[in-house]
Design a protein that fits this description.
globular; binds inosinic acid; 4 helices; purine salvage; binds magnesium ion; 178 residues; six-stranded mixed sheet; Rossmann fold
C-alpha cells in the first residue's frame, strides 16, 4: 500500500485546506439558491463527503457512475452511464463533483447529459486537474489544484480499484502499473 507510493502530493491537511477554500467560494456563489451536488462514482466519494459538510446553502446530493478506465491508466474516450441520478434534475442548479479531470471526456459527456435532462444550470468542481492532458475543452468552475501528468491515487482515486482508502493523495510508483 504505502510502499507503492513514490511521494505524497497532497497531505490530509493540505486537502482539508483546499476543500475549505472551494466550499467558501461555492457558498458565496450560490447564496440564496439551492444546490444539487452530483458526485461521480467512485473517485469523488471522499471529496464529496468532505465538501458537502462545508456547504451552507440548502443542498441535495446524488451520484452518477460513468464507465471508468478499467484497469488501465489512459482514457478510452467513450463514456457509458452505469448508474444514473435517482431524482429529477429539472431546473436544479447542479454542481458536478469530480476527483480529477484528465482528458475531460467524462465531464464533457456528463455535463451535456445533465443539460439534456433540463438542469437549470450545470457547473463543475474538481479537486485535481491535469490541464496538460485535456482532449476535450470544458469550462471548470472550481479547481482544487492543477497537477502535472502523473498517475495519482488515494482519497477516493484508484488504480485497478486499489488505494482509494489512502487518506492522502500520492503519486503511484510507475513500476506498479508498467
Ligand atoms: P477523463 O474523462 O479523462 O477526464 O477522466 C477522468 C477520470 O479518470 C477521473 O474521474 C478518474 O476516475 C480517472 N483518472 C484520471 N487520472 C487519474 C489518476 O491520475 N489517478 C486515478 N484516476 C484517474
Ligand atoms: Mg472519477
Amino acid at each position: 500500500m504505502h510502499q507503492d507510493i513514490e511521494r505524497i502530493l497532497l497531505s490530509e491537511e493540505e486537502i482539508a485546506q483546499i476543500v475549505d477554500r472551494i466550499a467558501d467560494q461555492i457558498n458565496k456563489d450560490y447564496q440564496g439558491k439551492e444546490l444539487m451536488l452530483i458526485g461521480l462514482l467512485k473517485g469523488s466519494i471522499s471529496f464529496m463527503a468532505d465538501l458537502m459538510k462545508k456547504i451552507t446553502v440548502p443542498c441535495k446530493i446524488d451520484f452518477i457512475a460513468a464507465s471508468s478506465y478499467g484497469n488501465g491508466t489512459v482514457s478510452k474516450g467513450r463514456v457509458n452511464i452505469l448508474k444514473d441520478v435517482s431524482q429529477s434534475v429539472e431546473n436544479m442548479d447542479i454542481l458536478i463533483v469530480e476527483d480529477i479531470i484528465d482528458s475531460g471526456n467524462t465531464l464533457s459527456f456528463i455535463s451535456k447529459y445533465l443539460a439534456a435532462k433540463h438542469a437549470g444550470s450545470v457547473k463543475i468542481c474538481t479537486l485535481l486537474n491535469k490541464p496538460s492532458r485535456r482532449q476535450t475543452d470544458i469550462p471548470v468552475d472550481y479547481v482544487g489544484v492543477d497537477i502535472p501528468d502523473e498517475f495519482v491515487v488515494g482519497y477516493g482515486l484508484d488504480f485497478a480499484e486499489y488505494y482509494r482508502n489512502l487518506p492522502y493523495i500520492g503519486i503511484l510508483k510507475p513500476s506498479v502499473y508498467s
